[in-house]
Amino acid sequence: MIGPTQAGELGSMTNSVSEIADDSVVNVSDTLKESQVMEVLHQLDQELVGLKSVKTRILEIAALLLVDRMRRGLGLTSRPPALHMSFTGQPGTGKTTVALRMAAILHRLQYVRKGHLVAVTRDDLVGQYIGHTAPKTKEVLKRAMGGVLFIDEAYYLYRQENERDYGQEAIEILLQVMENQRDDLVVILAGYKDRMDTFFQSNPGISSRIAHHLDFPDYTLEELLAIAQLMLAEQMYRFSPEALQAFEAYLKRRMLMPRFSNARSVRNALDRARLRHANRLLAKGGNVSKIDLMTIEAEDILASRIFHDEIPDSEQQAAIK
Ligand SMILES: Nc1ncnc2c1ncn2[C@@H]1O[C@H](COP(=O)(O)OP(=O)(O)OP(=O)(O)O)[C@@H](O)[C@H]1O
Ligand SMILES: [Mg+2]
Fold first, then answer.
1. SS3 breakdown of the chain: % helix, strand, coil, rounded to 5?
2. Residue 87, CA atoms < 13 Å, CB-side half-sphere
3. CA-CA 20 to 30 A from 90: which of 28, 50, 179, 254?
4. Which string of DSSP letters, residue by residue, matches 44-103?
5. Cα–Cα distance between 166 and 154 in angstroms, integer?
6. Which atom of ligand 1 is nearest to the CA of 50?
7. Is the CB of 121 under 6 A from ligand 1?
8. For the segment 152-174, what is each residue's pLDDT rounded down to a tens digit?
9. What CA–CA distance (Å, rounded) separates 106 from 274?
10. Closest approach atom of ligand 1 to CA 97
């Protein structure tokens, strides 16, 4: 007869239901502590602004996996839950960032062996010539095993207008692996919501294997400002009070212009502000204080082309990509 303590040791999963008494217990706090998942969840909450519904769903998934672990510890076997996901949202809403965190969480909860993320697009999976696609897709899948395969703009895999498109071959291989190796690989399909919906409609096989749809909303002005301050603090910079006001004015304009891409536009704008800050300090010469070296001033923001109704160069280029 296996006692509660032994049953609580979740390492070996060989116990069978009959050996373990129904009143055996496993401790929730111990399981949480042992998995160290709370640290990652806490970090996710601290380091990512907003994304409330995404964070809630991640908590729910963590709870599911923890309970699954406790159940296995007491000999209650079941197929591991399917965890393939879709992340939909506009550019710069945090999809890639959250996918990376998700890989770490799934690793802590022992859902995947390694917890790495392999990010790909159509070109990494689909070949140009006959016979090239299968080896390419299989090679990517091999690299991703034990972790997360993140397919950005997944809908490009499917070209409705062309029945013989090699993308179809990649989709079929993916489907098989999503079904048969789902306990060692999580596939996350990412992209714009409307295009993803169309993709799912045309590919019910894929759609039915996606357990979680996470939608990443556009950030509000307040969230973008909080993201900016977080990004600056991470690099030991900060806004002067006037610079914060100037940045708010900057964002209000930028949000209305073409090719605005949420947190990514914030990051780009801060990189340019840092450049101007550096040039201003050099031009000034003489002594600079630690405060000077840390502080972005309003002029570093107000010199932006945005205030002359032009999109900054780096964002123009990003748009061409
Ligand atoms: N909620 C957030 N809090 C703080 N930083 C964020 C947040 N969301 C995104 N970022 C930052 O913004 C940048 C862009 O995010 P990310 O690359 O994850 O977006 P994405 O949705 O994958 O965009 P794309 O569709 O263009 O690939 C990253 O530098 C990331 O760290
Ligand atoms: Mg991305």
1. 60, 10, 30
2. 29
3. 179
4. HHHHS-S-HHHHHHHHHHHHHHHHHHHHHHTT---PPPP--EEEEESTTSSHHHHHHHHH
5. 14
6. 1
7. no
8. 999 998 887 776 788 888 999 99
9. 36
10. 18
CB of 193 closer than 6 A to ligand 1?
A: no
At position 267, the amino acid (one-letter code) is: R
Q: Which amino acid is at 233?
A: A
Q: Order of strands, edge to edge, in the sheet holding 186-191?
A: 117-120, 148-152, 186-191, 85-89, 212-216
Q: Which residue's CA is the nearest one to ligand 1's atom 18?
A: 94
C-alpha dist (Å) from residue 140 to 120, 126, 152: 8, 11, 14
Ligand that lies nearest to the alpha carbon of residue 218, given by its number in the listed order: 1
Residue 115 Cα to ligand 2 midpoint, Å, equals 18
Q: Which structure tokens are listed for 103?
A: 């890989």
User: What is the CB neighbour count within 10 angstroms for residue 98?
Assistant: 25
Q: Which residue, by CA, sits nearest to atom 9 of ligand 1? A: 94
User: How far, in Å, CA of 61 to CA of 67, rounded?
Assistant: 10
Q: Could you tell me the distance, in angstroms and rounded to a whole number, from the CA of residue 156 to the centre of ligand 1?
A: 21
Minimum-distance ligand 1 atom for the alpha carbon of 94: 18
